[in-house]
Amino acid sequence: MLRPLSSPAPLAPVPASWGWLKRTTRLVCQPRLLPLSGLEALAPASRHAWRALDDDPQFLWRRQLPLPGWHMLEVRLDHDGASAAVKLYFDTGDGFDEAHSLYLALRAGRVSKRLCYIPPTLRAIRFDPLESAGEFSVEHLRLVWLTPGFAHERLAQRLTNLHPDWLQTPRQQLIGALKQRASERGVAWRELALAQYEATFARTCPSASYRAWLDRHPTPAAAEIAARLAAFTWRPTISVLLPTHDTEPAYLKRCLDSVLAQSYPHWQLCIADDASRDPQVMQTLSRYAAAEARIALVQREHNGHICAASNSALALAQGEFVALLDHDDELARDALFHIAEALQRQPDADVLYSDEDKIDERGERFDPHFKPAWNPDLLLGQNYLSHLSVFRTARVRALGGFRLGLEGSQDHDLALRCTRGLSAGRIVHVPQVLYHWRAVGTSTAGAAAAKTYTGAAGLRAVREHLALETPAVRVEAGRFPNTYRVHWPLPQPAPLVSLLVPTRDRVEILEPCVRALLEHTDYPNLELLILDNDSRDPATLDFFAAIAADPRVRVLRCPGPFNYSALNNIGAARARGALLALVNNDIEPMHPEWLTEMVTHACRPEIGCVGAKLYYPNGTIQHAGVVLGVGGVAGHAHKYFSGHQPGYFSRLHLAQNYSAVTAACLVVRREIFTAVGGLDAAHLAVAFNDVDFCLRVRDAGYRNLWTPFAELYHHESISRGSDDTQAKRARAASEAQYMRRRWGASLFTDPAYHPHLTLTHEDFSLR
Q1: What's the pLDDT tens digit per position in 608-620?
Q2: Is the dihedral of CA 568, 574, 575, 578 positive or negative?
């Protein structure tokens, strides 16, 4: 089962005999903070002590400065924002600058830590507590001096867990390997080590400025684009479909100019004006069409709304592909170039789509949406493909173009119809922000609720799409605008499901779990197998005897060292059900239909493993799908989010495909479990066996799925305990190393995630 990487061990306390050293050499340096700028002290009765007035509040670090050498920076803030990050600046003689700074994204309610090296030339320190305006209090802030040996150990731990260059390197060999590489490059080894250590930290928290991220990811120079374009062996024409109606003239010009500015020259702009009442619209369009031969323009006599206008634009298209553009949005300069470049690699693609962001009235870009690769179940829950969406023209025409009556969600309907029956290889995600969606007061981007008809149209599109093959399916509106929930039918009769629950003693944990599973599950056909791994506690054995009286329950004796994989493999071999449910002994259902929801998905022929939405007892998220690469192997999506938050673009409330889900609560058909060989008991006795299993299921041709509509509490690993001994930590490290050897680069190219999102945290931060 998926386990998070071990938390860093606490710093060893300074022995009492070192008191003289602490007094004279400042082993622990705690500052008095002097406000410099952008700060306002709040009244004593306020919840917080300070208010940041802008995005650059600054304190001067007063008191004694820390010793030269290795230190651990420790920070905890109480703040009113969704997230926060701090920076520490070091003046070594030339003032404060970015080259001598540390960045640390904070975790809510926790002390966040990171290594740093203090040079002997240090003169002053500046502490910047937030990256945006808001209220806060500094709960904990200090620099703790470390012995070089301890610092090197922590450095090796992080790099071998998180840096792609060192994932295969044994921890004890890391420092030597770093020194050798530094010698080969002619640099100081500590300089290289700190640079690579820095690379393992998320540089942008979710609320931080998107502008800062854009500065670190500049658009390629025109000369580079021209050189890449010259190497193309195929230059397909892309017809941009642009329906217009009473567009704000300034926005219309920006839209048109964004097409004219394309670095890829083989385009056609097909404009269909839908009987605009504002004469400026046609005057503008006519002027542009007269000046550019690649623009085709038609004016409709009667307003027919967006589907009819889009079909009029489609009739003008001469290109092999059509791209959809709204009349007040903008294309990135290299948008069509990146589409054409993707077609060089996959010339048989029929559907392509890109990432997007939003643009406000001032032209400021914000709210980027970095999307997963082809994710069929996510597309049923929301139209994540648009924008930019590009389709093979012949396919769109063969399907009849845009369907009248689907106004508002015509692009979602087209995406569903165009992707039906296509293999995944013919649906291509271009992982670049190629489209800027105009966010104004009444636009769908600016306020989805302003156009309620879009949700109704989307609901109809999904229903009619699914009804063609599964008439019994039900679709209802989701929790957030323009999202949808699909209720798949349960086969009749309902297949037998075998719940496999490994355990050892701890009846106070097991009994509530078992009784909740039996009493608060409305699924009509189940058996529960308790896989007893050498329980000795009399109360536990008494419970086994009592609960076995229930005809749905069997207790199987499974002696030997704890091996989660082996226990479940034994249970699967003895189970009678057509479906297997792997369930931890610390799981409690939150509603009775949880298993029905999971089984309806697991019975779909194309679906492999099905995972649930798991909560900590305090209501925060423990598991909402598995993201590969996080922490060096895998981590839980949206961990520690509130269950009420939408998550990343509402994904916390949408059924979708993930590469893996946790075996703390996992349902799969027995035939699939057997076909891929079950869990790996030889190499993955405790950790990551579920990730490995899911990846083998995926490689066998099935889609793994996570549903937010099966909700359970999970007291994570409370019965087994944490990895708090040297033997357990060695086992965890060995299993992580095995996963990296077994799966290699695929751990860092998760199709359900995005390469621009962090692998350091589990919150969809930008890298």
Answers
A1: 999 999 999 888 8
A2: positive
Cα three-residue angle 661-662-668, rounded to 5 degrees: 70
Cα–Cα distance measured from residue 309 to residue 273, given in angstroms and rounded to the nearest whole number: 7
Indicate the pTM of the whole model. 0.80
Cα 517 to Cα 583: distance, rounded to the nearest angstrom: 10
- DSSP string across 401-430: SSPTT-TTSHHHHHHHHHHTT--GGGEEEE
Residue 35, helix vs strand vs coil: strand
Pairing of strands 656-657, 703-714: antiparallel
CA 167 to chain centre: 21
* Cβ neighbours, 10 Å, residue 562: 15
Helix, strand or coil, per DSSP, at residue 358:
strand
d(CA 364, CA 95): 31
pLDDT in tens, 115-139: 999 999 999 999 999 888 889 999 9
Phi and psi (nearest 5°) for 695?
-70, -35
- Distance between CA 82 and CA 91 in Å, rounded? 30
DSSP 439-467: --TTSTTT-GGG-HHHHHHHHHHHHHHHH
Residue with tokens 């598991």: 623
How far, in Å, CA of 199 to CA of 767, rounded? 9
Distance between first and last Cα of the chain: 27
Determine contact, residues 440/328, Cβ cutoff 8 Å.
yes
Which DSSP letter does residue 209 get? -
Judge contact between 132 and 77, C-beta under 8 A.
no
Q: What would you report as the CA-atom Rg of the chain, rounded to the nearest whole angstrom? A: 29
Phi, psi of 179 (to 5 degrees): -65, -40
Task: Compute φ and ψ for 586, nearest 5 degrees.
Answer: -125, 35
Give 569's contacts (C-beta < 8 A, 6+ positions apart): 678, 679, 681
Q: How many CB atoms lie within 10 A of CB 677?
A: 11
